[in-house]
Amino acid sequence: MAETALTCTEDPPDPASAPIRCDHAAAEAPSAKSGGGVVKTTQRIVPLADGRRQVARFPRSPRAASFQKTFFPETNSAEWNNWRWQLQNRIRNEDRLAQIFRLSEDERQGLISQGGALPLGITPYYASLLSQDDADDPLRRTHIPVGAERLFMPGEESDPLGEDHHAVVPGLIHRYPDRVLFLVTGSCATYCRYCTRSRAVGGNHNFNTSQWEEALAYIEAHTEVRDVLISGGDPLTLSDDKLNWLLGRIRRIPHVEFLRIGTKTPVTLPMRITRDLVHMLARHHPLWMSIHFIHPAELTTETTEACRRLADAGIPLGSQTVLLKGINDNVDTVKTLMQGLLKRRVRPYYLYQCDPVRGSAHFRTPVEKGLEIIRGLRGFTSGYAVPHFVIDAPGGGGKVPLLPDYVMGRDGDDLLVGDMHGNAHRYPDPGGAIGKDKGSAAV
Q1: pLDDT-above-70 percentage for the chain
Q2: Spatial separation of the C-alpha atoms in residues 201 and 311, rounded to whole Å
């Protein structure tokens, strides 16, 4: 097999891997949409047995390729795999949605009345995962507005977690003793309809470098801060240069030990995870990443490649999943998702009870549903596949973990506990008090 014609330059050495960065200039002709220039993509060089090398391009699933051919026929594969093109061509209005999806009356009403803080925005890639005909498709329900968004229920707030109240400077929330939440942008690749920060994303808040500097000055002055979580919006919608500068500034603060990035980009815009990006991120270790997944349908070829690149760069990956009514609120769906994440080297971390943000009642489940799911996972799959089920306490109380109750009672010095099947077992616990309030049971 002949080697593809490429212009290649060696990347700086990387402890996890040392791929070669290549600009694929020959495979696709320039287009008007890209300003007449070549769209550059990052390639991985794979050695062959005979010593020659071939390019491992960013993968594209058959579903995405078919979607591109049908709805973006003038777009070539290099453009499709360019993350900036994806952002520039997001689906942002009813007319474009209607060209792709058979909209239900509920969706049309939601779009007509959609004028609140949360905008509409879906990348072409992520749109390719949504059913074009079924309005009850899980991913489609989380991204296309419906009329229920206009229904505001008691207890709902625009800022349910009290983040604005706990902001010590604009965009910096210091709620826990040793860590801060640093909101650095209001932009996301796509906008989830249940977003707890719907008040702040999509251009509703002004994020700029002067705000960053004010937040950095606060972190520098507070030596108790050892952990910084960078979020937004989605930090990976920033350019490499801006993100590199920001991470570098935080890294230079001596008492900051731990950096995290919260993102959904590997799921909604996986081609953003370029070789250049992962090499840059690897310079700021120890760096961790929390990725927002909600459904097994998101575990595509493209997202798998994005996670592989990040993990190969030595970045520990964790997942955060929001429990959503009719979307992932059953044991089988969550188990499939969590097991699929482990296969992609993503450790399930949090399963969130949906926050009571305004207009989200149609997404929220009873709290016992989450406990039911955790009980259906614990013991029935790997412990690594069982996330922490938490409520983010309204008003700023922080994360409150919830667990099924496995304590069945007490019999003298024996604690009675239930196993995964509900069978009682005795554990010798002389002098203990747990379980006294439940009495005793025969074992």
Answers
A1: 85
A2: 28
